[in-house]
Amino acid sequence: MTATNSPTDKAPVRGLARRRIVSLGDVYRAPFVNSPGLGATLFVKLCAALGTRTLVQVEGVENLKKENDPVIIVLNHSQKLEALSVPGILMYLRDGKMVHFLADWNFCLVPGVWLFYHFGQVITIARKPAKPRFLNVFKPLFTSKEPGFGRAQTALAEGRSVGIFPEGTTNRHPTKLLKGFSGAAQLSLQTQVPILPVGIQFPDHDKTKPIPEFIPMALKIGRPMQPQAIKGKPKLEEIRVWHRQIMAAIADLSGKSWQPQNRRK
Q1: pTM for this structure?
Q2: Distance (Å, rounded) from C-alpha 124 to C-alpha 42?
Q3: Residue 98: which CATH number?
Q4: Residue pair 250/176 in contact by the 8 Å Cβ criterion
């Protein structure tokens, strides 16, 4: 698929329909030859459909080729619905080939969200407690005995790609990334799987204001980044150095800045 649009085409939001580069019809008709099943196909198409309303540009599609699997896709995170729409768009661009995103288990407590986790083959992680805390009684229903990090390692070893939002939460700041968590860096070093950085930009947004939902969105897909070869378990400083390089790449692609002293969340 060739998905390009002039970055200088600054049409107002009311003209957004003519700027869409992926239509509902495109998503509906896509054969998804690499999808693992009907449930996954319906899930990805539904999530991709959410993104068609606002997606106005994609650069670097060639770097997303499924032939490059496995990779660890890392992205900035500015809107809540990105957690559904962007993975859907990425998998649509891969002809339905799944990317197993890591996400907190407690979102499964929201009615209907568990279905997205199940059919999207999301790897649940148990880092955050539920609020209010009495809801933690449901945690065993939505998590595995094997930690999420271990399941991500297994997926990569089997040649499947995973996706991570390193910031760890929605960050609506228009120009700065959060410090982020170093799990993607550690996973990449331990498995020696490349990082594929992706930046999410909002070309029409006023950068003096927080980023809202439902505004025109552009994806910039960078080139795979090969981790440094190491012996044994990665050292803390090796993880920190690789994390800095990963966040710097996301910053460059997203048009934001990143500093290690930024607050984590």
Answers
A1: 0.87
A2: 20
A3: 3.40.1130.10
A4: no
